[in-house]
C-alpha cells in the first residue's frame, strides 16, 4: 500500500493537450474515482500512473518514489482493464499467477496466492478454464483476481464495469466495494458513470477538458458542486437548470417566469445566472423527500408532460423557465399526461451558478 | 422421355464433375497407372506394360533420389525458419511505424512481383564467381582475395539457392505476421507490461502465442512452395554441378524429360507429393492447436 501524488501532471499528444497540469493526492488506502465525459483526460491520467503513457510534464510519486521514468513493471501497480485484457492462451490460474511467474516466484507460492485470490472472488471452480469459456462477469472477476494476486501498492481500474450488463454491473460494484473494504488498498478508479463513482469512492475527482473541476467526497460533489458542469454531471436524473437575470430580490427566468431569490444568496442586480434545482427539490405537494420546515418553498401549478413510474417513485417531466425539468414524486400515485399538479420548489436547496464562468455562486 | 431424365441436383453438378474429371482426375489416374509401367516417352507402347511396384522398389534403393529428398527437406527447413525469423523481424519493425506504413508494406511485397525465373537469373549473376556482385563486394571490402565458387561448391550453392528463395518469399511471412499484429488487441500486451514483463517477455508470453496461427498459415503455404521448388534452382544451378544441388523436382524433371523415363518419374513424383502432404498436414495440425489456444472473443 502506498500514497500516490500527482503534481502538475501534464500530457500532450503533439498539439493536443490531453491533461493540463493536474494536482492530486491519494492517501494510503483511499478509493479515488476519476469521472468525466469522454475525452476529459481521466483514462490518460490513469495510463500515466500505470506507466503506459509517457508523462509530458510534472511529477508522479508512488509512496516517496518519483516514478515518472520507471517502466510499468517497476511501479508495483496492478490494473484492471475495461476489456479485461486476459491472456487468451492461458488458463484462469495461469492468468492470475502470471505476474508472480514473471517475478520468478516458486510454483508453491504462486499456487497459494492464486487459490487465495480465487477464494476471495469466488472463482475457484474456474481455475482450469480458459478466458473464452467464461462469461463477462467471470472474466471481470479473473481480471480482478489477477490484480489482487500481485499485492500491489496501487490498484488501477479503467472503466472495469462498462462491458457488463446493468444487473451484473450493480453486483460487481458491490463486490468491488467489499473487496476494497477487505484489502484496504489504494485505488484509482476511472469511470464515466457517476453512479459508480458515487457509490464506490471515498473521494471523487471530476474532470473536464484535461482539468480537474472538483475534488470532494460524494456528499460534497453532490450537495456543494463547484460548478455548473459538476452539478449537471453528478446526480441522476441530472440537476434542472434555467438561465435567469437577477432583478431586485427575484430571478427573472428567460421565458418571463419570476421566482424569488433563493435565500442565503446575495447577487448583484442585472447579473446573468443559472438557477439549478435537483429533481429531489421539485415535487408535487405532499410527495417530497426532504423536510420543508424553515425552507423557502415556492408553489407553482405546472402541467405534467410525461411521467415515468419506477415503483417507489415516479419521475415527472414538466416545463419550467423555458426548459424541460424533471421532478421526483415520492409515494407516487398515477399521474395522467397533461394533468396539472401543484409543485413545490424548495428554493432553500437551490443552486446558483454564474452564467458566464459556470462557477458556483456561494450564499 | 421424362423417366430417363436425371434428377436436377445431379444435372446441376454434372458440368463441374465432367470438367474436374477431364482436367484433374483422368491425368492423375493416368500418371498413377504409368508409375506402375516402364513408360518411356520414346516408346509410347511401353505404357501398356504393367510391372507392378518395381519403379517404387527401385526408388527406395536409389541413393540419388534420397539425397535429393533429404536436400529438399533441408532447404525447406532452412528457408522456412529463416524466412519466419526475418519476416517476423520485418513485421515487428513495420508495425512500429506510425507514418509511411502503407509504403513500407508495398515495398515489402516487391520481391514477390518478380517471376522466380528472373530471381534465379539475378541471383545466378550475383553469385557468379567471376563477375558476380557478391564476390566483387567481398573483394572490395578486403574480406577475401579469392573468387569464391558460390555456384560450384555444393554447400555454397545450397546457401546461394536458399538466399534466393528467402529473398523472394520472406514477404509472405512478413505480411501474414503483420496482419496478425494489426488484428491483435493491444490490451493484453499492456496488461503484461503492468504485470511486470520486460518487452522481450511481453513478446514471448503474450504477442507470440497470438501471432503463431498467422505464422503457421504462412508456413503451410510456403512449405508447399518450397517442397515443389524447381524454377530458381533450374536457373541457378540446374541441380548441378554433378547433382550437388539436385532437389526432388529437378531430379524428377530430369528423369521425365531428359531421360524420358516417364513411368519412373511419375513414381518419384508420387513419393514427393507425400512429402508435401506430410508437411502440410503437420503445419495444419500446429495451426489448429495454435488457433484453439488463442480462440475466443477478445
TrEMBL record, chain A:
Residue intervals of the ABC transporter domain: 4-234
Give the matching InterPro entries: AAA+_ATPase (IPR003593), ABC_transporter-like_ATP-bd (IPR003439), ABC_transporter-like_CS (IPR017871), ABC_transpr_MalK-like (IPR015855), ABC_transpr_MalK/UgpC-like (IPR047641), Mo/tungstate-bd_C_term_dom (IPR008995), NA-bd_OB-fold (IPR012340), OB_MalK-like (IPR040582)
List, in alphabetical order, the Gene Ontology terms for molecular function in this entry. Answer: ATP binding
- Keyword list, A-Z: ATP-binding, Nucleotide-binding, Transport
Q: Return the CDD domains for the record.
A: ABC_MalK_N
Family recorded in the similarity comment: Belongs to the ABC transporter superfamily.
* Name recorded for this polypeptide: Sn-glycerol-3-phosphate ABC transporter ATP-binding protein UgpC
Query: What gene name does this entry carry?
Result: ugpC
TrEMBL record, chain B:
Q: Return the CDD domains for the record.
A: TM_PBP2
Q: Where does the source fall among the domains of life? A: Bacteria
Q: How does it sit in the membrane?
A: Multi-pass membrane protein
Locations listed in the record: Cell membrane
- Any Pfam family the entry gives: BPD_transp_1
Which Gene3D superfamilies does the record associate with it?
A: MetI-like (1.10.3720.10)
The record ties this protein, via SUPFAM superfamilies, to: MetI-like
Just give the chief location class.
membrane
By sequence similarity, the record places it as follows:
Belongs to the binding-protein-dependent transport system permease family.
State the protein's name: Sugar ABC transporter permease
Organism this protein belongs to: Salipiger mangrovisoli
Amino acid at each position: 500500500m502506498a500514497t500516490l501524488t500527482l503534481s502538475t501532471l501534464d500530457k500532450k499528444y503533439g498539439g493536443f493537450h490531453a491533461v493540463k497540469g493536474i494536482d492530486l493526492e491519494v492517501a494510503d488506502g483511499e478509493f479515488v474515482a476519476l469521472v468525466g465525459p469522454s475525452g476529459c483526460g481521466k483514462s490518460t491520467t490513469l495510463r500515466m500512473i500505470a506507466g503506459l503513457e509517457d508523462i509530458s510534464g510534472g511529477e508522479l510519486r508512488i509512496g516517496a518514489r518519483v516514478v515518472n521514468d520507471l517502466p510499468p513493471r517497476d511501479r508495483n501497480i496492478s490494473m484492471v482493464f475495461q476489456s479485461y485484457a486476459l491472456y487468451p492462451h492461458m488458463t484462469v490460474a495461469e492468468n492470475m499467477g502470471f505476474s508472480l511467474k514473471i517475478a520468478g516466484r516458486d510454483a508453491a507460492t504462486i499456487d497459494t496466492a492464486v487459490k487465495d485470490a480465487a477464494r476471495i472472488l469466488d472463482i475457484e471452480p474456474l481455475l482450469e478454464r480458459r478466458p473464452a469459456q467464461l462469461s463477462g462477469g467471470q472474466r471481470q472477476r479473473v481480471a480482478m483476481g489477477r490484480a489482487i494476486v500481485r499485492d500491489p501498492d496501487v490498484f488501477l481500474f479503467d472503466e472495469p464495469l462498462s462491458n457488463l450488463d446493468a444487473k451484473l454491473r450493480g453486483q460487481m460494484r458491490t463486490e468491488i466495494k467489499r473487496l476494497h473494504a477487505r484489502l484496504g488498498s489504494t485505488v484509482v478508479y476511472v469511470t464515466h458513470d457517476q453512479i459508480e463513482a458515487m457509490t464506490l469512492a471515498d473521494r471523487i475527482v471530476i474532470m473536464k477538458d484535461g482539468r480537474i473541476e472538483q475534488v470532494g467526497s460524494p456528499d460534497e460533489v453532490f450537495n456543494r458542486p463547484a460548478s455548473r458542469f459538476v452539478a449537471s454531471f453528478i446526480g441522476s436524473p441530472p440537476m434542472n437548470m434555467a438561465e435567469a437575470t437577477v432583478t431586485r430580490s427575484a430571478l427573472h427566468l428567460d421565458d418571463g417566469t419570476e421566482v424569488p431569490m433563493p435565500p442565503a444568496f446575495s447577487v448583484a442586480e442585472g447579473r446573468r445566472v443559472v438557477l439549478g434545482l435537483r429533481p429531489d427539490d421539485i415535487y408535487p405537494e405532499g410527495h417530497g423527500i426532504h423536510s420543508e420546515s424553515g425552507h423557502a418553498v415556492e408553489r407553482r401549478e405546472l402541467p405534467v408532460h410525461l411521467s415515468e413510474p419506477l415503483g417507489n417513485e415516479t419521475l415527472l417531466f414538466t416545463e419550467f423557465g423555458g426548459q424541460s425539468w424533471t421532478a421526483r414524486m415520492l409515494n407516487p400515485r398515477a399521474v395522467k399526461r397533461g394533468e396539472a399538479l401543484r409543485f413545490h420548489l424548495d428554493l432553500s436547496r437551490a443552486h446558483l451558478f454564474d452564467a458566464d464562468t459556470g462557477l458556483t455562486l456561494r450564499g | 422421355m421424362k423417366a430417363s431424365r436425371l434428377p436436377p441436383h445431379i444435372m446441376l453438378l454434372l458440368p463441374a464433375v465432367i470438367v474436374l474429371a477431364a482436367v484433374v482426375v483422368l491425368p492423375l489416374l493416368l500418371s498413377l497407372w504409368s508409375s506402375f509401367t516402364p513408360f518411356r516417352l520414346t516408346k509410347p507402347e511401353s505404357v501398356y506394360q504393367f510391372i507392378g511396384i518395381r519403379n517404387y522398389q527401385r526408388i527406395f534403393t536409389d541413393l540419388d533420389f534420397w539425397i535429393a529428398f533429404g536436400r529438399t527437406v533441408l532447404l525447406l527447413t532452412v528457408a522456412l525458419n529463416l524466412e519466419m525469423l526475418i519476416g517476423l523481424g520485418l513485421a515487428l519493425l513495420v508495425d512500429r511505424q506510425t507514418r509511411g506504413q502503407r509504403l513500407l508494406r508495398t515495398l515489402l511485397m516487391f520481391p514477390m512481383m518478380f517471376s522466380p525465373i528472373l530471381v534465379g537469373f539475378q541471383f545466378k549473376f550475383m553469385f557468379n564467381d567471376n563477375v558476380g556482385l557478391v564476390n566483387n563486394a567481398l573483394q572490395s571490402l578486403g574480406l577475401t582475395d579469392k573468387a569464391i565458387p558460390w555456384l560450384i561448391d555444393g554447400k555454397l550453392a545450397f546457401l546461394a539457392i536458399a538466399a534466393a528463395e528467402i529473398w523472394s518469399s520472406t514477404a509472405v511471412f512478413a505480411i501474414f505476421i503483420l496482419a496478425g499484429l494489426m488484428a491483435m488487441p493491444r490490451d493484453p500486451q499492456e496488461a503484461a507490461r503492468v504485470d511486470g514483463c520486460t518487452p522481450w517477455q511481453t513478446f514471448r508470453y503474450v504477442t507470440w502465442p497470438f501471432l503463431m496461427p498467422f505464422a503457421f498459415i504462412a508456413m503451410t503455404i510456403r512449405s508447399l512452395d518450397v517442397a515443389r521448388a524447381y524454377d530458381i534452382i533450374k536457373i541457378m544451378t540446374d541441380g548441378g554441378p554433378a547433382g550437388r544441388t539436385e532437389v526432388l523436382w529437378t531430379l524428377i524433371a530430369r528423369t521425365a524429360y531428359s531421360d524420358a523415363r516417364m513411368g519412373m518419374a511419375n513414381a518419384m513424383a508420387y513419393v514427393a507429393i507425400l512429402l508435401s502432404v506430410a508437411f502440410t498436414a503437420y503445419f495444419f495440425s500446429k495451426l489448429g492447436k495454435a488457433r484453439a489456444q488463442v480462440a475466443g472473443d477478445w
